[in-house]
Amino acid sequence: RRVHGENIFGCNLHMPAEATPRPKFRTANGRHVPSCGGRCLIAQPDGENYILFSVILVVAPVLVVHFAVIPHFSHDIEILLHVLSAVMLATCLYNLLRAYATEPGLLLTSDESGQYMVVVHGQSFELPEFRAKFCRETSNCIEHFDHYCPWVGNVIGRRNYTNFFIFVSTCIGLDVFCDAVSWASIVRNMNGNGWHAFQTAAEHRPAEIAIIVYTIVLGISLAPLFGYHVWLISNAQTTNENIKGTWNDTRNPNDIGCVKNWLRFIRSIGHRRESYMLSTSPANATSLV
Asked: Assuming Cys at both sites, which of 25, 115, 241, 271 could form a disulfide with 34, CB separation 3.0 to 4.6 Å?
């Protein structure tokens, strides 16, 4: 005799309880507005937004290398280079879009006696306790405020800083990759040694010359930015804190040593706290508009 809820094979027919629906963003906060059915908050900044230009700057040289440079190599090397370029490009674009679409660390605020306070779970805190600052471009208070980045189209804060840094890092990686592959293609086409042989080979590789010039210009722009953020992570500072000199005359309590600072940063990759815009809704809290 079958037990209620089992089929003829004795398998339980009861379906597992449905998972709790994921909270969604319901209302706009400053210049961040719900998008993708409430799954993300997209910034509509009062300022420059060059994210589409960023995508073009990243994708265009990779496509040139993909279709005009890599085919000059042997078949086995060609496959390897195609895979490497595709993986780096996908990583770069993924983190660019994540930095753009991720709620960066918005904090609800309340006006108490003319002073804005951060409100979390009904408790009030001063802005420095969250290393927070009001972002003029997005009209929001941001935890671990770093800077507003027009190339990402969003303010960079606690919840999207790792994506921003990985985006910049992979841009550097793609820049070096495209430059190296282009140089290698020209060298492989040389007949002999010396400047004349190189010049002759380069004349038959216009795409490679264009990529080399492009990557040098782009590298000059990106390398200082990358190095600066490596230094910031090593010293547990944000761009805002460094520019303001917040820790010039006092010990930085967030700095636990270069190695431990990096280990903390690495552990934070892929792990971000839940947005307070989903979990906090005190009646007296407002977002500054």
From this structure: 25
- Please count the other Cβ atoms lying within 10 Å of the Cβ belonging to residue 128: 11
Identity of the residue numbered 118: V
The amino acid at residue 278 is L
Least Cα distance to 133 among 247, 49, 25, 239 occurs for 239
What does the pLDDT average to over 248-257?
A: 94
Contact between 215 and 178 (Cβ < 8 Å): yes
**Whole-number pLDDT of residue 18:** 55
Between 47 and 71, residue with greater pLDDT: 71
Asked whether the predicted pLDDT for residue 24 surpasses 90, the reply is no
Q: What single string gives the DSSP state of each residue in the chain?
A: -PPTTB-TT--B-PPPPPPPPPP---S-BTTEEEEGGGTEEEE--SS---HHHHHHHHHHHHHHIIIIIGGGS-HHHHHHHHHHHHHHHHHHHHHHHHHHHS---EE-EEEETTEEEEEETTEEE-GGGGT-EEETTTTEEETT--EEETTTTEEE-TTTHHHHHHHHHHHHHHHHHHHHHHHHHHHHT-SSSSHHHHHHHHHT-HHHHHHHHHHHHHHHHHHHHHHHHHHHHHTT--HHHHHHTTTSSS--TT---HHHHHHHHHHHTT--PPPHHHH---TT-B---
> Residue 226: CA atoms inside 13 Å, Cβ hemisphere, count?
15
- The sign of the dihedral angle between the CA atoms of 157, 160, 162, 167 is negative
Residue 167 pLDDT: 97
